[in-house]
């Protein structure tokens, strides 16, 4: 594979992201490389951020607002990339974790082809720049389908997909990383909604707690590390389980009401985990004594 001399996720994200995807797919499907080997390569590549000379790429300008709101945040591009594959491990997404490894290695491969075989300061700086931008691009992919408080479309992938030509790339990322199917879902469909109290809804939308999918598609684990002082009244506690069931018969109707989408809840769980693991929730750690950089979702169910 030959890289264009102008290849850059940062400079031309729309024009060159497809080339990055092709490189990622090549590594992803290369059966001669084990997941363990890819992981070791990733850890080695991420050391590029440890250089003081490249600190500006580890804490890029795009994170300025987060630093302003949370001065004690440990947010860095390196932590963000690590949070993606750590979250995949917590959700038992083996193929999704390999996809993250492959993407980071693809960045390295394309940069090395552009700069030539001999490593040097210029190559290291370009790699740090590309990996930093990749972290932001992937985070945007997770953020885009959820919507924010006040959005009418909630967590609908379909409506968000139409906002930008990057939508298909977001869909592919979600399919590859979270091992889910992204289909058109009406905003007002029952599968795109949860019935929550006003307090629980606000904190759920704010990613202060989430539901972790289990092997049973109707069973979810409550993950809420905010502590009792921030919890709403009459809510389930961290570690409790919720089971969705169809109560149509009890309502005197034969129509089977669809249950909330496991895939959409998976997106929320992944985004919440990555946000906590990357250090953005540093204020929460200081308030509630939570180590936000540690495992947030817990081991696979």
Structural topology:
Blueprint: H1 13-28, H2 35-45, H3 55-58, H4 64-69, H5 77-90, H6 94-115, H7 121-143, H8 157-161, H9 167-178, H10 198-205, E1 210-213, E2 219-223, E3 241-243, H11 262-277, H12 282-288
Organism: Polyporus arcularius HHB13444
Protein name: HNH nuclease domain-containing protein
Write a brief structural summary:
The chain is mainly alpha-helical. The protein has a domain at 13-178.
Descriptive overview:
The chain is mainly alpha-helical. Helices cover 48% and strands 4% of the residues. The protein contains twelve helices and three strands, in the order H-H-H-H-H-H-H-H-H-H-E-E-E-H-H. A three-stranded antiparallel sheet has the order 1-2-3. A hairpin with a 5-residue loop joins strand 1 (210-213) and strand 2 (219-223). Helix 5 (77-90) packs antiparallel against helix 6 (94-115) and helix 6 (94-115) runs antiparallel to helix 7 (121-143). The protein is globular and about 70 Å long. Mean pLDDT is 76; it is low at 1-6, 11-15, 148-165 and 285-291. It comes from Polyporus arcularius HHB13444. This is HNH nuclease domain-containing protein.
